[in-house]
Each structure stands twice: as C-alpha cells, then as structure tokens.
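Reopening this one. Same input as before:
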Amino acid sequence: MTTQVALVGGTGKLGSIIHAVIDELDGFEVSRVLTSSSDLAEIDGADLVVDATTPQVSIDVVRAAVERGINVLVATSGWSAERIALVRPLVDAAENGVVFIPNFSLGSVLGSALAAAAAPFFPSAEIVEAHHERKVDSPSGTAVRTAELIAAARADRGPVSAPHADQRARGQQVGTVPVHSLRRPGVIAKQEVILSGPGESLSFVHDTVEPALAYAPGIRLAVPYAAQATGVVVGLESMIDIGIRS
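Same output, byte for byte:
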C-alpha cells in the first residue's frame, strides 16, 4: 500500500527538496501539491500531510490535518515550545501524530545536542544564527530549539548568565539564552553556539552549504516516522540515538 502525501508549500525551496526526496522513497507518493494560499480542504483523503509553508500558515495546516485525523510532518520554522503547546491538546484528543522538525540536517541536530550536553558545565551560552535575507522569521526554528535544549539541560543548574538582557542589542532571550539573528545575502544557514566560563570558551558551529544534500538524509528518516507517529514529537533527535529527547 502506498502512503499518499499532501505536500503543502510544495512549490517553495524546501518543499521542492522534500518533494524530490519523497519521490525516491519506496511506499510513498506525493499525490497533491498545495501552495500556502491553497484551500486546505485539498488535503482530504491524504494519509500524511507535510507542511513546508510559513509560520503564519503552518498552524492552520496542522489544525486542518489533525481535525481530519491525518498525521503531519511540520517542516516550517517558527514553532517554539510555547507555540507547540497550543496544538498539543488538539493532537492528544485526536490520537494521531504531529512531528515538528526544526532542521532536517543531521549535522545541525548533532551540533545542538552537543551544545546542550556541554551547557551545564558553562555559566554563559549565546547563539548567533545567520540566514539568507529572504527568511521571514527570526530567531530561526533551529536556534529556538537549540536554546530550549540548553535550558532543559541546565534545569538543575539554573538559567544561563546573560548580563544586560534588558538591552535590545543583547538579542532575544529564549529559555534565558540570548539569540542573535543575522539576515544577509551570501549565506544559506549557519549557527554558532558559544559557551563561556572562567578563562575559556567552547563553540559549536554548523554551516549549511548545499540544502538539498544536507536535508535529504533527515527527510528520509522523518517522512516514514511521521506517517506512523502518535502524539507530538519534536526534532530528528527523537529518531536517532544521540541521547537527547524532546
């Protein structure tokens, strides 16, 4: 039996990459492609919805799919823990699955996991993320997820040290972690996590240089997983054994 996929936002850059990967997956077929402005009734009859739209549209896609009892793979950025909490009761009541993937790159997931593992040993943590000038949201979903993992890892140690957090130039705090967003031409996606302590610092840098190649392995993992998932699942780290769970 072939799993019929409704790909919402399938004409965008990320949607096109996802489409190409699904075309190569055994047992899966993109049976309908929607844009961000399509009537969401077009997802009727699908076995899985993949959302690659915008932060403004994504929540409507998730709700429309869950109300129809269809599992969802959310590839759209901008889903913080607080925003996911808004749809969690709906997902729990429907007893189907919604999988949120802030970043399909395995290297990015590993970088965030390593930063979270190191975070309890350093009092200071800050994130600098850079994306192309067309990215509409900031901080990035990856930076938000990384900051949330750092905060969770420091639950017993308390918040990170972030002096002068009231000043706008200090960045947006996510889980007490200052996040600084750059939007400029000449970059695709890059994130640096800087951990600092007395007399030393430790940095984790991930740089995406070819999205189609970087994201494909994660998409291959996430699509079959999302088709069978139940409840709310966050991050590729839930699908690979790196010691970090949502």
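So the earlier flakiness isn't reproducible anymore. For the record, Residues 106-208 form a domain with the Dihydrodipicolinate Reductase; domain 2 fold (CATH 3.30.360.10).
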